[in-house]
Amino acid sequence: MQPVEITSGGRTLAGNFFYPADRYDNLPVVLLIHGWASAKERYFGLAEKLSESGFVCLAFDLSGHGKSGGDINTLTREDFLNDVVAAYDFLGRGRGIDAKNITIVGSSWGAYLGALLTSERAVARIALWVPADYPNEGFDAPHILQSGERPKAIKWRAEPRQSDATRALHAIHQFTGGVLIVESGKDEIVPHQTIVNYMQAVADKRQLTHVVMENAPHSLSGHENFIQEFEKILCGWLLQ
Q1: Model confidence over 106-149: pLDDT tens digits?
Q2: What residues pair up with 59 in beta bridges, in sequence order?
Q3: Structural domain tally of the chain?
Q4: Which CATH number characterizes residue 34's domain?
Q5: CA-to-CA distance for 87 and 85, rounded, in angstroms?
Q6: Nearest residue to 4 (alpha-carbon basis) of 47, 79, 59, 80
């Protein structure tokens, strides 16, 4: 594990590279994007497993999270999108990586940002783990005002939406690579309808893989059995 620093909008983001023990050229790459009010450490176990399978991984703290700079109370979705773009660009300069084989793995809020990233940079595949969605309005307002656990946000997510209704759904509709959507069967934050909206947004259904983790909650913190289940699902999809 190699600590790194990434610059985004004048802020310093803390990150960690994970390399396979046996390094060679053109290694496949995974960019890990954590959820709201979370941190990169939540992905360390997954990153270690993926590196053992030959992937280079970058886990990082979004602005205002973990060890990264910035005030979470003032940062906008535009700021956070700039974070993931900066992390992607930093990752692309890594040693021995295949810049044409970059997979995005995002959880909840991180999945939303990952979806937006596919419109900004070249991505081979994306894994959307309990993906949140947000209205286009307020993109340049402090995101904390629309954070995902608010009842109003959850109610909004329970409504059917077309693929052009939000920036994230539109991005996934335009995306041509492989898409994995992992749903938690007992998710109290992201309703099933949000998952349906994302699935319907995928233009080429042959590129879509949808898996439901029965009885899993939205956050898997403290649920080691579900964490292991997700890691098995993701690794199986990446290695197929």
Answers
A1: 999 999 999 999 999 999 999 999 999 999 999 999 999 988 67
A2: 16, 32
A3: 1
A4: 3.40.50.1820
A5: 5
A6: 59
Cα 209 → chain centroid: 16
**Could you give the count of Cα atoms lying within 13 Å of 225 in the half-sphere of its Cβ?**
5
The answer, yes or no, to whether residue 23 has pLDDT greater than 90, is no
User: What six digits make up the tokens of 131?
Assistant: 């993906």
pLDDT for 176-231, tens place per residue? 999 999 999 999 999 999 999 999 999 999 999 999 999 999 999 999 999 999 99
Selection from 140, 138, 164, 163 nearest residue 153 by Cα: 138
Give one word for 215, left, alpha or beta, with left for phi > 0 and alpha for psi -120 to 50.
left
Tell which residue, 47, 82, 54, 174, has the closest CA to residue 122: 174
pLDDT single digits (tens) 38-88: 999 999 999 999 999 999 999 999 999 999 999 999 999 999 999 999 999
Dist. CA 67–CA 58, nearest whole Å: 15
Q: What is the extent of the structural domain holding 234?
A: 2-239
